[in-house]
Amino acid sequence: MQSALILALVLVTALSAFFDAKGFVYAALAWRGGSVSAANALWSLGFFVTGVSLYIASIGFQQRLGVQSPALQSIFWFAMTVIGVALMDGTIAQWSAAQRAVAIAVSLGVAWLLISAPQ
């Protein structure tokens, strides 16, 4: 039962992070040359609405697993979203070995915080 909840949490949070990352990428595209692109702004908004809706669903899974702290709940999403943005805009391919090692260490640190912090 708990492994199914964890799997559901990871999947829903990954989807939330994916949609929010797309929202961030389109938000960056919305402003070019000092003017706003309405189409990119609307795409950004749509992705954010979908992402936050999934994030709210992920909180239910986290609470059922005993994670009650909003700080811990959001840090899990944040780590996944940052990685998603880096993957989508292609900058992760340009990271040095040291930057990738730090990204892995930070991800492990976030996982440790989720597991070890008092609920």
Which labels suit this protein?
two-stranded antiparallel sheet; 4 helices; 119 residues; mainly alpha; globular
Assembly type of the shown chains?
Answer: single chain
The class by helix and strand makeup works out as: mainly alpha
> How many distinct beta strands?
2
Averaged pLDDT, please?
Answer: 87
Low-confidence stretches: none
The domain tally reads 1
Q: How far is it from the N-terminal to the C-terminal residue, by CA?
A: 20 Å
Summarize it.
The chain has helices at residues 2-30, 38-64, 70-88, 97-116; strands at 31-32, 35-36. The protein has 119 residues and is mainly alpha-helical.
Topology of helices and strands:
Blueprint: H1 2-30, E1 31-32, E2 35-36, H2 38-64, H3 70-88, H4 97-116
Antiparallel strand pairs: 1-2
Helix pairs in contact: 1-2, 1-3, 3-4
Describe the structure.
- The structure is a single chain.
- With 119 residues, this protein is mainly α.
- 80% of the residues lie in helices and 3% in strands.
- The protein contains four helices and two strands, in the order H-E-E-H-H-H.
- The protein has a two-stranded antiparallel ribbon with strand order 1-2.
- Strand 1 and strand 2 (35-36) form a beta hairpin.
- The model has no long low-confidence stretch (mean pLDDT 87).
